[in-house]
Amino acid sequence: MNTNQPNTLAPGYFDDVYRANEDPWAFTSSPYERQKYADTLAALPKPRYERAFEIGSSIGVLTAQLALRCGQLLSVDVSEAALTQARQRCAKLPQVELRKMQVPAEFPDGQFDLILLSEVGYYWAPADLARAADLMVAALPTGAQLLLVHWTPVVPDYPQTGDEVHEFFLQKATPAGPLAHLHGHRAEKYRLDLLAKR
User: What is the DSSP string of 66-126?
Assistant: First the structure.
C-alpha cells in the first residue's frame, strides 16, 4: 500500500466527475464493462439472493442487472448525480432501493446474503478499507457471500490499487479467518474474487 497514507476520495471528487460527463466510465457503451458485468453475474453461484447490498451503484447499469437475481437490493453511492440516473434506470424495479450513503462512515442495518463491492475499494484509504471490511464481514451471516470486482491497473488519483484491495480481503480468508475464498480469477484489466462468511 502507499506509504504516505493517502486519503479516501471525497464525495466531491465524484460529483465533479459526473458533472463533467454523465457516464464518465462508459458503463452503458463499453465492451469492457459489458464483459465485466457478465463475468460478475456469472461468478454468483446462487440463482437468487434474498437481500443484497451493492456498494457503489454509480448510474445503475449493473444494479439493474443484479436486481433480477435479488428479492431486495440496497444499492448506495456517494454521488447524488449518479443516483439520479440510477433511479431512472431502476424505476421499474421495485426490489431496488437506492440511497445516498458514504461507506464506511455510514453503513446500513441488518444482514445481507450478498454484498457486492465492485470498483469502489481502491477509492478508500487503507484505514477506511479496513473499517469497511469489518462492517461487511459483520453484516454477512454464515454462508453469505462477498463478491469483489476491481480494475487492476494503477490510477494515480486512487489511494490503492484493485490488487491491494483484493489481497487485503484474502488475508481474511485464511483457515482461521472469518472468510473462505470460493473462487477467483484475473482478466486482462480486472480481477474478481468470491468469498463467503465462515
Answer: HHTTEEEEEEEES-HHHHHHHHHHTTT-TTEEEEE--TTTS--SS--SEEEEES-GGGS-H
Q: Give 195's strand partners.
A: 146, 181
Q: What is the pTM of this model?
A: 0.91
| pLDDT exceeds cutoff 60 at 172 | yes
Q: Which amino acid is it at 67? A: A
Cα distances from 193 to residues 13, 51, 101, 164, in angstroms, run: 27, 20, 24, 13
Q: Name every residue whose Cβ is closer than 8 Å to that of residue 185 and which is 6 or more positions away in sequence.
A: 191, 192
All 3 cell numbers of residue 117? Answer: 463491492
**Other Cβ atoms within 10 Å of 42 Cβ, number:** 9
SS3 at position 44: coil
d(Cα 95, Cα 82) in Å, to the nearest integer? Answer: 19
Residue 14 pLDDT grade (very low, low, confident, very high; cuts 50, 70, 90): confident
Encode pLDDT of 157-167 as tens digits: 999 999 999 99
Give the distance from CA 28 to its chain's centroid: 17
DSSP state of 7: P
